[in-house]
């Protein structure tokens, strides 16, 4: 994913993707609903396209059929010659790259919003590759301001030097919405409503951006106060540092599980010496790191097979530069 | 399942089954642990056998591979001639019927405890076929008395005239433990501890029964007070009446989900006119029955494919007769 080039252009080609993981039901059901009734995704300056990313996994109500689609958007997969034995999700990643990309090209979609659920107690989490996607950071800031009473954290998942691999990395800018806790295969009304409100607010923000300084929307007070459409701000985020696996037996079975004092404590500080696992035999395993970390995705069902009981993140604050507004639209004829 | 015959005999052949559904992790992990360290399942008068019921589904962390094992213990499946194309779970049901049964025979295990989780907010639920299994009802009563501060409801799942089909129906007596909410594929320490304590209490009860009136366990005060080993009592339970499907589109997709006012309200009264579903289009669907029911398994992930959003139950109270104690053991030689 690259930052939006200068000079900025309106975002016309926007997609809202659900069912990247076929058992994360908020996005699955919203995408299916919007495919029948897309009116909710329309704004004056653009119409977002609903996409059901993984139809086969969605039909089977599984995360994936052959491999994790949301790890398949790498150049190795996208550029290799197609083969009949390719995993279903690799083929599907190429199709989505044609639809929404090609990745890193000028033809790529302007923005992709990708809808996820987690079994972890993540609340509302905004998932971005890194802080370099300035448009996405401004969108995060906007979403945080919409519901200041609800925590809405930003998680930066890309490790240094790591190639981007997510579905939203295909577009020029993108963001994942991660809502939890919700069991796989279950659709909770409360999370559905929250997801829907976040998508609406995100599309409103894109509309706001597209309107340019000439827009008459009342929300444009930021511009009139500062002379910049979207001024710089300080952002707090949680950046992935590493992952921690469950304790296991010599044959790979679980030998313990997440400690009750860590369970459901996503984004809270984990200090050296605090318990992280409870062994089936009764003993506690303590966190032996030297500095405080902030665990996220604690006890996410889909990560057992990846060898991840939780991610360790560092909490950081950084400056996000102003987002230049569009050139004022020509005044309408009197 | 038949009630235990008179005169009562001690229960020597007892099994604790986990992984009947391969993604219900409390039982999966306990069964695996006990297969390595069975000491926790031993009592003076018997040693319960740990069984991992569905190894293939457990390895894949799925409910089942081909079909639901916990619906496969019917005479049609158990007595049909084996065929190489049989579903995996049908073959496995026959194997378990050999190990724990044969069903309805004198050779069957005395008692099977089967460990389950649900994504519904069922708390601690004891699942019995019907009120006719007097030993199981006494066990339920015992478990309820162990932790009076925690609700511990009894769910009777057999519809009138329905053949028994569960794994524990193979034994002379049996019970399912259903703990939730826990997402599929997730092991929560709190539910694991609760499941383990319930199993321990169940085995203690069987030991208590086996000891007979000559037992010197302090818990036998019931016998000394009443002259009957396990006196009659009144039991409250929730009996399945019918199921209710989600609202769906003409193609079978979900058109709405469980209403926020019903979600997480398992075992609470649902009165005529109360909302049960929220349509994606915004409207509420109301409960149109004429009498109050008690929904259970509300929004259980595994039941979407069965066309079940929740079960309607009726709450009933009935008398459970005394459980005759064993004949006093001969006094030990002086």
TrEMBL record, chains A, B:
UniProt remark on cofactor binding: Binds 1 zinc ion per subunit.
Gene Ontology MF term list: aminoacylase activity; aspartoacylase activity; hydrolase activity, acting on ester bonds; metal ion binding
Pfam assignment, any one: AstE_AspA_hybrid
Catalysed reaction equations from the record: an N-acyl-L-aspartate + H2O = a carboxylate + L-aspartate; an N-acetyl-L-cysteine-S-conjugate + H2O = an S-substituted L-cysteine + acetate; an N-acyl-aromatic L-alpha-amino acid + H2O = an aromatic L-alpha-amino acid + a carboxylate; N-acetyl-L-aspartate + H2O = L-aspartate + acetate
Active-site residue list: 178 (proton donor/acceptor)
Alphabetically ordered keywords of this record: Cell membrane, Cytoplasm, Hydrolase, Membrane, Metal-binding, Zinc
Matches recorded under SUPFAM superfamilies: Zn-dependent exopeptidases
Cofactor(s) the protein requires to work: Zn(2+)
Positions bound to Zn(2+): 21, 24, 116
Annotated ranges, domain Succinylglutamate desuccinylase/Aspartoacylase catalytic: 11-206
Protein family (similarity comment): Belongs to the AspA/AstE family. Aspartoacylase subfamily.
NCBIfam families per record: PRK02259.1
Function as written in the Swiss-Prot or TrEMBL entry: Catalyzes the deacetylation of N-acetylaspartic acid (NAA) to produce acetate and L-aspartate. NAA occurs in high concentration in brain and its hydrolysis NAA plays a significant part in the maintenance of intact white matter. In other tissues it acts as a scavenger of NAA from body fluids.
Protein name as it appears in the record: Aspartoacylase
Organism: Myotis myotis (Greater mouse-eared bat)
